[in-house]
Amino acid sequence: MASSKNIQAAWDAFVAFDALKGHPEVAQNLPHPPFYALDRLCRFITFSRPVTKTHFRAQLAVMRRMWEAGGKPPLAAWNSLINFAGKGLRTGSKEEYKTAVSIFNDMVAGRCPGSRLPKGVIDYGRLTNHINTPIQPNLVTFNILLDVATRSLHSDSVKHAVGLFTQSGFAPDFISHMCMLRYHSKKRSLEGVRATLTKIKEQRIIMPIDGFNAVISAYAYNNRHDLALAVFRLLENNITLSDDQEGIHSVRDLLSREERLEVPDNVKPDVATYTAMIQSMAYIGDFVHTFDIFNEFLSSRDTARIHPSTSAAFRAVFLGFSKHGADPSWIVPDTGEVSRWNLSNLQLVFRLFLKLPAQEVPTRSTVYWIMSAFDKTSGHDKKLLREVWAQMKGRYTTARPMLFSQPRLRRMEETIYNYTPH
Length: 422
What we know:
Pfam families: PPR
Largest sheet: none
InterPro entries: PPR/CCM1_RNA-binding, PPR_rpt, TPR-like_helical_dom_sf
Order of helices and strands: HHHHHHHHHHHHHHHHHHHH
Strand content: under 5%
Organism: Coprinopsis marcescibilis (Agaric fungus)
Distance between the termini: 45 Å
Protein name: Pentatricopeptide repeat-containing protein
Helix content: 55-70%
Number of helices: 20
Shape: globular
Low-confidence stretches: none
Keywords: Repeat
Number of strands: 0
């Protein structure tokens, strides 16, 4: 615990020590691990990623040991425990928020961590009853509670968290507003999004690119792809001046007047910006904007090929082909033209995709959408599908043997080859 650089080894030492606590010699000579060792393990757990539900149990166990030893867990440990109470699942829940609030209440009351956990959450047996000096929460604490509440999408939990924040006397910061913006976006409330942007403007908070990416995602999620594109145009103009500065001025005025959104001249798009925009345009089938932005993304020195998020952009394009791709015989009504979401263009993208560094293994979802896209645009050409499948299996199986083991991918292979693999 005190010296290991490996979190698993440190945790194993803690578990082993805990198992010996009933031994008479251990109880007499070293009833508790040294506080500095427990504090170190706490920090180890706090910064380990990815966060799973086991983080909460592990952190709680260590902090209870600190308490039993007569120590006082620091505020950072409490904050991480509150955070872990609401993490580990893809989406939050009101039960997770209740757990987070229970830990918060223990902290401000000077009680042992976990003293008032909701029934059934966890049971560590007998709790020590001694009271320490209450810990005063900071802005981070209230932002964590707000984050847990907004992830739950439970309106009463959000009202409670906002109430605690208001009572604290702290002014909301950028993180606070991003929590609320995400909440309003997921609740499909553009009025709430605009209200949040108004508060940001009133507080004169300078938004970094992360904030604008969140705004773009909020507009796209709420089917205002036009507004997402408007924000992107201004960000893009900060890299290369548009030939249509009159149009840029009109867009800037529109966003300021109707959306309460100001885009400063020094904020530039990053990988997440391009990926969000490609997803937005591909989702609605806007081929021209999808590929204009995609080409710019790949040619940008700061964003392209070496960044792990590149796969997300390719997946968005492949999803676009899967969603809007046309059978070779299909003609666009009224124009008499062949759809641009066609097999020829898909093959161009796929060849480019295979030129990416071999260590950039796609996700299972990416593989699925590639195959779905080829299936749709080829008119279910099994010979072609087998070729594409073989190319991907040959390229990625060594690096990630279980990549193709997902049930829906196995079913796809069965269909392509007309057999059941063993």
